[in-house]
Design goal:
heterodimer, A: about 0% strand, globular, B: mainly alpha, two-stranded antiparallel ribbon, two-stranded antiparallel sheet, 6 helices, about 75% helix
Chain lengths: ~230, ~230
């Protein structure tokens, strides 16, 4: 009970700060849209061609997650910058809180930002790319986004807490982050492909979903153990 | 016995082993023949490729263990050990990728060029290489010694946990491999003379790794001593 109150207070702080400045969310949404545009120009001949439906689905899945992955890095990069530069981290560390709660609250705020950005930009994506037959298995896409975001936020929060201490911190995070989330990325692409195929069955996607769930659990448990060492100052 | 003395002895041992192993690879081990009776000379690269891969994994395991010990004991010697091991590991992994590409270019022609994006082992090794390059980048970008030790330890631990997940995800994503399996659970699938040569090469490269590791470790220790002297002055 006490923990949930503390986490709620920390998350509320992040959300209020973001709603006042709006610097992360706006940038992320615009960045996602720009990535869609750039990729569709780059792949225009392929998108115009009359592809087989499963090829088209996997191409669109790649476009979607490439944009989301880059946008996630953009947001994660900022998540500890204010805390550090304006001394908020010192305040948090002095507060009578369990250190792991700071991680968990930051993870929840990052997850909320990421889901908000994805919720907005999925409409843009649908307008740009999706044909009428692509919506029948949309629940798979929703499950994929939730399972993927849990892993992306967990790993990203931990790594951005590390990267914020580096010399070139904005450059450091993508280098640390992308190789680490390769497993998520590799299972999200086929999962999203099935979301666009009306013939997809539960048996096609259950293995991928189980894998993502395992990844999420591993990278939610491990930071709890090691986060103390990262913020210890 | 002092560490520098051990390194000296091992250096001479490594030199003798390398000379012997070259003789074994090119004179003792028989030339492989294909079904048509044609000699396959490029198969000789296996005697370097497999030991390099083994040493690379060993090196990253040492990074993992060094990280855990550092977090437990907070002694900078474990950080130096882990970082040295990562440097040697990255060099060896680079060589694994290069020798593997050279072999694959000949063995898998004309189906593949220099790289095969659907293969589990190739791509896992590639991600492994990227993860530990990121580890080295992280080490280079953080100035404060004590902080660097903690962050490197945490990153070393989570990247080691990530590697099996990467392998599993690539398996789900592209469920095939055409990489030959020399070492199976049932034992070696090789001619006895080839097997002895391979084992000898593995021994040679392991000793070479220890020499590199100890040399780099002592260098790191000296660098630390210089920093301490500077602070005293």
């Amino acid at each position: 009970m006490r923990f949930s109150k503390q986490i709620y207070a920390l998350v509320e702080k992040d959300i209020i700060a973001e709603l006042r400045s709006k610097e992360i969310l706006n940038a992320m949404v615009i960045f996602v849209i720009i990535t869609f545009v750039i990729l569709s120009f780059g792949l225009s001949d392929i998108l115009k061609a009359n592809l087989k439906v499963d090829l088209e689905a996997v191409l669109l899945a790649g476009i979607l997650w490439l944009a989301f992955a880059f946008a996630a890095v953009l947001g994660l990069n900022r998540s500890f910058v204010h805390e550090k530069d304006e001394g908020c981290m010192d305040g948090l560390l002095l507060a009578p809180l369990d250190r792991s709660l700071i991680f968990f609250a930051k993870f929840i705020s990052n997850l909320i930002f990421l889901l908000t950005v994805q919720f907005i930009s999925i409409f843009v994506f649908a307008v740009f790319f999706l044909k009428d037959g692509f919506y029948q298995k949309f629940w798979i896409l929703i499950a994929a986004i939730i399972l993927g975001d849990l892993g992306i936020s967990a790993v990203g929060t931990l790594l951005s807490a590390i990267a914020v201490n580096g010399k070139a911190r904005d450059l450091l995070l993508p280098i640390l982050f992308f190789p680490m989330i390769i497993p998520v990325y590799l299972s999200l692409i086929p999962l999203t492909k099935y979301a666009f195929l009306s013939t997809a069955k539960l048996a096609d996607v259950s293995g991928l979903m189980q894998f993502l769930a395992v990844y999420d659990i591993v990278f939610l448990v491990v930071p709890f153990i090691v986060f103390d060492f990262i913020v210890e100052d | 016995m002092k560490l520098s003395r051990i390194t000296e002895i091992l250096t001479f041992a490594a030199m003798a082993l390398i000379v012997t192993s070259i003789w074994m690879v090119f004179r003792y081990a028989p030339v492989a023949v294909d079904d048509a009776g044609q000699a396959i000379l490029y198969q000789k690269i296996m005697y370097y490729h497999i030991p390099l891969a083994w040493v690379a994994f060993l090196a990253f395991f040492v990074v993992f263990i060094g990280g855990i010990l550092y977090l437990k004991k907070q002694d900078s010697k474990y950080e130096i050990l882990a970082y040295s091991s990562a440097q040697v590991g990255v060099i060896f992994t680079s060589l694994v990728l290069i020798t593997g590409s050279m072999w694959g270019h000949l063995a898998w022609a004309p189906d593949f060029g220099w790289w095969n994006w659907s293969d589990i082992r190739l791509n896992t090794t590639l991600i492994l290489w990227l993860l530990y390059l990121a580890y080295l980048m992280l080490g280079a970008s953080i100035k404060e010694e004590e902080k660097r030790g903690r962050f490197l330890a945490v990153f070393g631990i989570i990247s080691f946990i990530d590697v099996p997940l990467v392998a599993l995800s690539i398996k789900l994503w592209a469920s095939r491999t055409i990489h030959p399996a020399i070492i199976k659970s049932s034992g070696f699938d090789l001619d006895p003379a080839m097997k002895i040569t391979l084992l000898f090469c593995i021994l040679t490269f392991t000793v070479l790794y220890v020499v590199f590791l100890l040399t780099r470790y002592q260098l790191g220790k000296l660098a630390e001593d210089i920093e301490l002297f500077k602070e005293k002055l």
